[in-house]
Amino acid sequence: MKKVKLDIVGLSYSQTQSGAYALVLGEVNGRRRLPIIIGAFEAQAIAIEIEKMTPSRPLTHDLFKSMADTFHINIQEIIIYNLVDGVFYAKLICSDGKNTHEVDARTSDAIALAVRFNAMIYTYEFILASAGIVIEGNDFLFLENMDSIAKEPEADTLPTSGQQQGFGDLTVEELQQKLQEAIAEEAYEKAARLRDELNKRGTS
């Protein structure tokens, strides 16, 4: 199965799910983006490492990294390998220099560890084809509301469906127009909800 390499291109407070954050992964050398809703604790862990901040005490993911280093275990890559009922599934590919093992993990935890181990992030083509959105132009990394990141909330999921966000009354043409506007504004979470609503109606 073909793997697709991803980079982190966005992390911001979710406008639709209280206490959650929108993590946006981008296809390397491509225009597709994969938005995932993650918890505040994991968002904090990812943001702190990206920004090269040093917390006063080690976070859980920092502790894992220290223990892995002590026992000479390295995370080579992480793979987002499945998407079931809107929930992403990931695994760590770990090695002690002799043997390689796969370890199941929540996607947000896997990415928080990937940035600490400088590990590659991958997914499969079928996941990007079903859950990705296509953007025009270039992206940038945005880290927002760091001071408000506090407690751990929910699972690693797709953004909330469009029907729940009031898109049900819009026509297909209106949805397509709003999708293009959301993509132009780099509002990936909203774009994903609009895309899902169009898909439910059998429209690409």
From TrEMBL:
PROSITE patterns assigned: BFN, UVR
Keywords: Coiled coil, DNA damage, SOS response
GO biological process, one term: SOS response
Single Gene Ontology MF annotation: nuclease activity
Residues in UVR domain copies: 169-204
Domain of life: Bacteria
Protein's name in the database: BFN domain-containing protein
Organism: Pedobacter kyungheensis
Taxonomic classification: Bacteria, Pseudomonadati, Bacteroidota, Sphingobacteriia, Sphingobacteriales
